[in-house]
Amino acid sequence: MISTQNTDIIPENWYNVVPDLPEPMPPPRDNDMHKSSIELLNRILPKKVIEQEFTFKKYERIPDEVIELYEQIGRPTPLVRAKNLERYLNYKGKIYYKFEGATVTGSHKINTAIPQAYYAANEGIKEVTTETGAGQWGTATALASSMNGMKSKVFMVNVSYQQKPLRKTVMNLYGSEVVPSPSPLTPTGRKFLSDSPNHPGSLGIAISEAVEYALENNIRYLLGSVMNSVITHQSIIGLETQKQLEIAGEEAEVLIGCVGGGSNFGGFVFPIIRDGKERTIISSTAREVPKFSKGKYKYDYVDNAGILPSIKMYSLGSDFVPESIYAGGLRYHGASPSLSLLVKNGTVKSEEIGEKQVIEALRVFANTQGIVAAPESGHALASAINYVKSNQGERKTIVVNVSGHGLLDMSIFNRG
């Protein structure tokens, strides 16, 4: 295990993949509701986040204050060789996992919540809002806001609000007000409640509600995933991993992560693959949300109401409402434009994993490595196990991003 006490592992700069993409990333498009994307974004996002969203600079300096907060929440996170898992699978190569569950909020989401909240507070903002699915992003927003002296309101997808009461408790503890979405607080929420009072909600609906609430109350909205500025902040995962591998004298030959909107995956993979070396790269998604196999690569709305600009990505449609699956963080209808480009050109392979296989992978990982991983991370672990079983003769070094812990998601082991 590489020591988390070595804060020199934390990079001084984030990495922006846009200049290194194989082709230009299609720009966002204005929509009918708001004619100017930039005008809309200027009303809801911190100015520095907008700048980072559209920059072509390859590196972005991390403010000293943000690095200090990163240290306070547990960065750098550990990179661990999973020797027990190797023995269990009889794998002759090496398996490492980057454990983002070691942060105080238990997932990678805090990596972008901290800088976004920092930038908002520097502008004199007193309150922020956002959405959350499984609760990891809402938890990160709540803590980052509190650390920067701001209030927060989180619109939580209703089915997760009902299934994960402990997530709500943690967000409340961090000072956030948590609202089940759809809610009566916004036009979008009232529309869906009038059609279905017990609507399960979706991330697309919750995003619409948070954006509407930000616009109506002149506060700022924090981005949880998908957009390039978020993936830039999340690049701290891959940058740390790369440095930790160098210390261990290793080189990643297979990279595996789960994909909801694409932020943990992009943040983990993009800094490592910038050298152009040939690797196997696998994005693991939920079979119940088959965005890469059944979605279309097209311009589509980020949110259900079509308030935010449309972006070109793999999407099942902004009106897609997935079933109440066990991994709430993977319920999003689309994927980030940068990841979508790399899936389209074949750089990144995609694999869809179902609930039964995910739960078995979580059990194996818990019994071999002692880590109760998040349901979302269970997809990455299942794909890693699949890879090993299909390539028993190899001796490659596999690195898996375990994007969070699952200690507040234990109910999934009692399903059906």
UniProtKB/TrEMBL annotation:
Q: Which UniProt keywords apply?
A: Amino-acid biosynthesis, Aromatic amino acid biosynthesis, Lyase, Pyridoxal phosphate, Tryptophan biosynthesis
Q: Which GO terms describe its molecular function?
A: L-serine hydro-lyase (adding indole, L-tryptophan-forming) activity; pyridoxal phosphate binding; tryptophan synthase activity
Instruction: Give the EC number.
Output: 4.2.1.20
Q: Fetch the PROSITE patterns from UniProt.
A: TRP_SYNTHASE_BETA
Pathway the protein takes part in: Amino-acid biosynthesis; L-tryptophan biosynthesis; L-tryptophan from chorismate: step 5/5
Its cellular-component GO annotations read: cytoplasm
Sites where N6-(pyridoxal phosphate)lysine occurs are at K109
- Is the keyword Magnesium assigned to this protein? no
Q: What SUPFAM superfamilies does the database record attribute to this sequence?
A: Tryptophan synthase beta subunit-like PLP-dependent enzymes
- According to the entry, every stretch annotated as the Tryptophan synthase beta chain-like PALP domain falls at 72-404
- What InterPro entries is this protein classified in? Trp_synth_b-like, Trp_synth_b_CS, Trp_synth_beta/beta-like, TrpB-like_PALP, TrpB-like_PALP_sf
Does the keyword section mention Methyltransferase?
no
Obligatory cofactor(s): pyridoxal 5'-phosphate
- Catalysis: reaction(s): (1S,2R)-1-C-(indol-3-yl)glycerol 3-phosphate + L-serine = D-glyceraldehyde 3-phosphate + L-tryptophan + H2O
Reported function: The beta subunit is responsible for the synthesis of L-tryptophan from indole and L-serine.
Q: Which HAMAP family match?
A: Trp_synth_beta
Family per record: Belongs to the TrpB family.
**Subunit note:** Tetramer of two alpha and two beta chains.
Q: Please identify the protein, giving its name as recorded.
A: Tryptophan synthase beta chain
Q: Can you name the source organism? A: Oxyplasma meridianum
